[in-house]
Design goal:
The protein has eleven helices and nine strands. The protein is an alpha/beta fold and about 325 residues long. The protein is about 45% helix and about 15% strand. The chain folds into two domains: about 210 residues, Spore Coat Polysaccharide Biosynthesis Protein SpsA, Chain A, CATH 3.90.550; about 80 residues, no CATH class. About 35% of the residues are buried.
């Protein structure tokens, strides 16, 4: 009889009182039960410590002074016993069969070190947002992901990932020095890609919570600026041409996200992108659609004014 791989779950928590119950409910109700759910309270100052205390022996609770999410995750990983470690943020949600589906892949492809899945975005109230997880040729097969990570940026949601313990040991886990940089998991995926293949299920098995301030321009800046930081960190992995193509894509993605609310900002970003790579719009379908819609709006305004002036005469 084949023994099933043991899975530990690690959840770092910092002031997550509004969502942590829902997160833990999704984890504890999995059809493939983890051997342990390790929650690391990273010095929360809200009601999170009291809420976590309600779970008793259903979770393993580690309390520490606030040291940042990377150190919190590493503390949980160090305490874990599973052959695989499943990662989840304290405001995200797993669907009931997430681990079951991923562990079927783990048993089918034992050499794959990281198994992820598609996710959908939800708002603070849990309503689905029109921001679908990207669908691509990356899905449903073992794949060497390094070139894609360097070219496209982060293609894996942290709360979707199940990581083989040996990969965490080889890489040393999360880099504490990057705790202040967004998308800290991206660094781990890049380093892990030196040692293992990935598998990304196309099925949506997790929900990623997007809070209100992450949808305004100021927060978009916080989202995209760190991508340039990662680009500089990994500069030696790029040729000059590849480096400029990647910079152009970040600007184009940022322009696309800004277009609905800040057209002025979007045009400036788009100009920078095209200057770095004139072909950058080739795969930016949504951005091209927004540009076409913009010119249609401008044309309608122009002809409305023109017809209005003719009518007055």
């Amino acid at each position: 009889m084949v023994s099933l791989p043991l899975v530990s779950v690690v959840v770092p928590v910092y002031n997550a009182s509004s969502y942590i119950r829902q997160t833990l409910s999704g984890i504890l109700c999995q059809t493939y039960q983890p051997i342990e759910v390790i929650v690391v309270d990273d010095g929360s100052t809200d009601a999170s410590p009291n809420i976590l205390g309600e779970y008793g022996e259903r979770i393993i609770l580690i309390r520490q002074h606030n040291q940042g999410v990377c150190i919190a995750r590493n503390a949980g990983i160090a305490r874990s016993r599973g052959e695989y470690v499943a990662l989840c943020d304290s405001d995200d949600i797993w669907l009931p069969d997430k681990l079951e589906r991923q562990m079927k892949i783990a048993m089918k492809y034992p050499k794959v070190g990281i198994i992820a899945c598609a996710f959908e975005s939800i708002d603070a109230m849990g309503q689905t947002l029109p921001r679908p997880s990207r669908k691509s040729a990356l899905h449903n097969r073992p794949i060497s992901l390094q070139a894609i990570l360097l070219r496209e940026g982060n293609v894996i949601g942290i709360s979707t990932a199940v990581v083989k313990r040996e990969i965490l040991e080889i890489t040393g886990g999360f880099e504490a020095r990057y705790s202040v940089v967004r998308s800290k998991d991206y660094d781990l995926w890049v380093r892990a890609s030196d040692y293992t293949e990935f598998y990304i299920l196309s099925t949506v098995l997790a929900q990623y919570r997007v809070l209100k301030d992450s949808m305004i321009h100021g927060s978009l800046k916080k989202e995209y600026k760190p991508q340039f930081q990662w680009l500089r960190i990994y500069r030696n992995r790029y040729s000059t041409k590849e480096y400029n193509i990647r910079r152009a894509k970040i600007y184009a993605d940022w322009a696309e996200s800004s277009f609905c609310d800040r057209e002025d900002i979007s045009w400036k970003l788009l100009k920078k992108a095209i200057k770095l790579n004139p072909m950058c719009l080739k795969y930016q379908v949504r951005l091209v659609v927004e540009i076409v819609k913009y010119f249609i709006r401008m044309a309608i305004r122009f002809f409305s004014k023109l017809l209005g002036s003719v009518g007055r005469k």
